[in-house]
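Inverse folding, one chain.
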């Protein structure tokens, strides 16, 4: 047990403290000019010695300058130093090994390492999906679990040491600032056949992003959790804030009290500004994951308190955008309720009379079939687009929420959908689209607009180089 250095400042945070502890905190603050600070952890007591976590902190420049000037009086710092010595005599402190806390409960047996060694060729081959023992969670990284070890997830990346260091840092911040509603999975590094892995505690959570969006949007008891998450982002720079990375653990609707969330992907800690406000279409950010104006105000208050300001977007602007998204979410729920989709999320789009779409179904164009150009009518294209939408609904992951099951990309980089971008008004060939007006004339856009206008799908959510993102 490593005792705390006398000159290391102590903070008790927001926990209840005695008069002597409050005075000690004040005196220590007088001598603190930045760097490491020891935060007392409630409940971590060994032989009447209180546990602390050392973590980096900072002091405001003006206050620091005034402190330094007061040191020139000599008599004031001497009085404060004597007071510090007396006050420190009432309490003893030791430094908690944060890595040991993180590793608690993770036991990598020889049986596990042998099993991974045996399966290594299949694990490394991301295209191999035929072994029932291996459950993969992502195609871009080696993240998997074994059916014989259901309580652990295994990760192996090129920067595994750096990833583990960030988990230790996250645990340190949660302990230091008493962020008890944020759960860092217990984890431990180990080696198999010269390759490094992290074995990480596996939570019983809903893993599909749309399922987490629904939970975050519809469950109560998240206000204090959001406040703690905003503090965590401010202290760590956690920037990859998406629903999938902040899953709710206590996800039963009947749960009472503040809900806990797991921080399951801490690889990216680059910017608290991105973590709070997001970054265009690349990062959603905390504000755009929240479910009420009250939660948004809580997060923005913490961001302001920690000096987190976006140079690109004003707080009111990002707040207004999120409220607009929440209103859209409510409209989508009403759309699904009206159309019987809540009871049957895979309900296909069925249109008995295509003429009700108010399209010229007899309009004719040409599509490429190998080296041959074949004639096709707009009616054929409508039937094909509806068929492709229904196919995607039918193939959607069972773990997705209703919204996720019916949100899809109509990929226009190949196949008939690409052809429908090349046919314009009256079947004329379109060689390139340079304006919204021109885009609105192509068959694919006209078909989707008609499906939206007539209430068969909810909206065309986004268009980019990959294609048309449709919410049905």
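Residues assigned per position:
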């Amino acid at each position: 047990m490593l005792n705390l250095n006398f000159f290391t400042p102590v903070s008790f945070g927001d926990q209840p403290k005695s008069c002597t502890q409050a005075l000690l905190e004040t005196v220590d603050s007088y001598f603190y000019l930045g760097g490491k600070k020891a935060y007392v952890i409630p409940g971590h007591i060994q032989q009447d010695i209180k546990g602390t976590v050392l973590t980096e902190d900072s002091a405001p420049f003006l206050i620091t300058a005034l402190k330094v000037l007061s040191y020139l009086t000599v008599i004031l710092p001497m009085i404060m130093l004597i007071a510090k010595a007396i006050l420190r005599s009432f309490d003893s402190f030791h430094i908690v090994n944060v890595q040991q806390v993180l590793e608690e409960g993770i036991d990598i047996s020889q049986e596990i390492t042998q099993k991974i060694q045996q399966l290594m060729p299949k694990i490394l081959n991301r295209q191999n999906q035929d072994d029932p023992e291996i459950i993969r969670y992502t195609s871009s990284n080696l993240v998997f679990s074994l059916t014989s070890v259901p309580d652990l997830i295994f990760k192996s990346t090129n920067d595994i040491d750096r990833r583990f260091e960030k988990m230790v840092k996250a645990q340190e911040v949660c302990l230091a600032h008493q962020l008890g509603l944020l759960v860092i999975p217990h984890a431990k590094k180990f080696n198999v056949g010269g390759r490094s892995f992290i074995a990480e505690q596996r939570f019983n959570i809903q893993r599909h992003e749309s399922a987490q969006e629904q939970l975050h949007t519809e469950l109560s008891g998240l206000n204090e959790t959001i406040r703690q998450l905003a503090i965590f982002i401010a202290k760590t720079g956690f920037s990859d804030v998406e629903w999938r990375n902040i899953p709710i653990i206590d996800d039963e609707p009947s749960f009472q009290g503040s809900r806990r969330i797991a921080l399951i992907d801490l690889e990216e800690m680059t910017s608290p500004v991105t973590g709070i406000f997001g970054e265009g279409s690349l990062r959603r950010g905390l504000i755009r994951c929240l479910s009420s104006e009250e939660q948004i105000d809580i997060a923005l208050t913490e961001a302001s308190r920690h000096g987190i300001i976006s140079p690109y977007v004003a707080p009111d602007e990002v707040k207004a955008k999120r409220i607009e998204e929440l209103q859209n979410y409510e409209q989508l729920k009403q759309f699904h309720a009206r159309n019987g989709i809540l009871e049957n999320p895979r309900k296909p789009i069925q249109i008995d009379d295509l003429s009700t779409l108010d399209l010229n179904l007899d309009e004719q164009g040409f599509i490429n079939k190998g080296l041959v150009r074949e004639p096709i009518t707009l009616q054929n294209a409508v039937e094909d687009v509806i068929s492709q939408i229904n196919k995607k609904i039918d193939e959607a992951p069972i773990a997705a929420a209703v919204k996720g099951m019916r949100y899809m990309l109509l990929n226009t980089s190949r196949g008939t959908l690409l052809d429908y971008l090349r046919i314009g008004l009256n079947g004329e060939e379109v060689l390139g689209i340079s304006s919204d007006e021109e885009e609105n004339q192509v068959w694919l856009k006209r078909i989707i607009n008609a499906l939206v206008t007539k209430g068969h799908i909810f909206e065309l959510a986004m268009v980019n180089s990959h294609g048309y993102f449709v919410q049905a």
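The longest strand covers residues 35-46. The chain has a mean pLDDT of 92.
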